[in-house]
Amino acid sequence: MQLTLWTYEGPPHIGAMRVATAMRGLHYVLHAPQGDTYADLLFTMIERHGARPPVTYTTFQARDLGADTAEIFKQAVSDAYERFRPQAMIVGASCTAELLQDDPAGLARALGLPIPVIPLELPAYQKKENWGASETFYRLVRALAGPPATAPRVRASCNILGPTALGFRHRDDLREVRGLLGDLGIAVNVTAPLGATPADLGRLGEAAFNVVLYPEIARSAAQWLERTHAQPFVETAPIGVRGTRAFVEAVAALAGVNPAPVLDGEGSRLPWYARSVDSTYLNGKRVFVFGDATHAIAAARVATHEIGFTLVGLGTYSRELAREVRAEAAAHGIEALVTDDYLAVEAAIAAAQPELVLGTQMERHVAKRLGIPCAVISAPMHVQDVPARHAPQMGFEGANVLFDTFVHPLMMGLEEHLLAMFRDDPEFHDGVAPSHLGVAPSHLGGRPREEAEAEAATAVLAAAPAAGPVVWAIEAERELKKVPFFVRGKARSNTERYARERALPLITVETLYDAKAHFSR
């Protein structure tokens, strides 16, 4: 574990909680000390879930450590069963309780409850949240899916695997994917974990194939179902127009249906805009992408292949899917960044000098400090990234949402740049009253502004140490503001480098343009 201000993923028991909260009829008993119950806030405050998570904590205290904490756990399991009467239970320990080695699995078995009790072994000091969700779902499927089906399966039937509580737009993605499958005439047998019961998991084997929406969560379970139930699975993410078309073709091939009716009426505005004259403003814009593997890879493809951006950075915190991210980055001629250290991500963004960042809520804070537009396309997220309205990432409607998500920050950035560029214009700067009022600009009542600014620049130069950092003259700073925001940082650093190499203590407008000419060769 690493002590840090921010973290991309919580401990693995948070992942287990996401699966339990997504399902119905399942209860999670977590062996945890008092204070580890903060996880409720993730669902009630960030996701605005309508009910508290189906989790019972043992909440032992410091004074209990000298007694029998195992007995506390057994009592908590028994009480949870009597109160909630779930179809199945999962039991495990938080990162702190893991150190006590109380063996929740053995203790739960000793109670002899008349329902399935699935133990979770989630090594909190080696693994993290998404792995915890994947392992929990895998254990549930193994325990509850039952024997392989012997009756013939309907070819055009599938299970949808992967959506959980507190997933990035999982609720909305599921609605879009269900719509696509319905339009193709493919029946959805079970959707899990989101909305499923333990009894539903017992019917997984009835479908002909599985659709994996989020490999971080459902790949392990799908691979097990493929081995034991002979169910192939589709893992193509239907994100973006191309991704959605590829998804439709893949599921149609497995189901033996014709994809043409769906593909002919896709209805996304993204391709139209990418072909329009207005889109030329976006061509070649430098973009840095970071997030979970599924969304980072998809966002990189949409940004480059469908909108026309240039990818200058691609990374993920999902180490379990690092190979896929590295392969995608290599296809774009760059090296992937695989890390869960947000400071390393910040350094990479600063070095790449992108014009747009697509990332998590942590990259939003980083981009704000660096003065770069940013859009959130992956968890971790904040409440503003869980809209009450329908806002999917997947499907053709999801492509429309992505189009807005990617383009709006740049368009607003252009507007801000134009306002900044004309701020000092004689007719538009802040000191000028509306022309129809006939009021003279305030700066004309005293000394001319240019004379005052020249005197201030001389004073700054006199105060600067001979060997110290270079100083910008006021008129040079004003000229720098006319440079578009997305390359302003690079222009500043190049100019300062040019000045240092020539021992110039003051950067003037002439220095700025000399540096531009020098580095443009």
From TrEMBL:
Gene3D superfamilies: 1.20.89.20, Nitrogenase molybdenum iron protein domain (3.40.50.1980), Proto-chlorophyllide reductase 57 kD subunit B (1.10.8.550). It is an enzyme of class 1 (oxidoreductase). This is Light-independent protochlorophyllide reductase subunit B. Pathway: Porphyrin-containing compound metabolism; bacteriochlorophyll biosynthesis (light-independent). Keywords: 4Fe-4S, ATP-binding, Bacteriochlorophyll biosynthesis, Chlorophyll biosynthesis, Iron, Iron-sulfur, Metal-binding, Nucleotide-binding, Oxidoreductase, Photosynthesis. Its EC number is 1.3.7.7. Residues 472-516 form the Light-independent protochlorophyllide reductase subunit B-like C-terminal domain. The gene is bchB. The active site is at 278 (proton donor). Component of the dark-operative protochlorophyllide reductase (DPOR) that uses Mg-ATP and reduced ferredoxin to reduce ring D of protochlorophyllide (Pchlide) to form chlorophyllide a (Chlide). This reaction is light-independent. The NB-protein (BchN-BchB) is the catalytic component of the complex. InterPro entries: ChlB/BchB/BchZ, LI-POR_suB-like_C, Nase/OxRdtase_comp1, P-CP_red_C, Protochl_reductB, Protochlorophyllide_Rdtase. GO terms for biological process: light-independent bacteriochlorophyll biosynthetic process; photosynthesis, dark reaction. Its cofactor is [4Fe-4S] cluster.
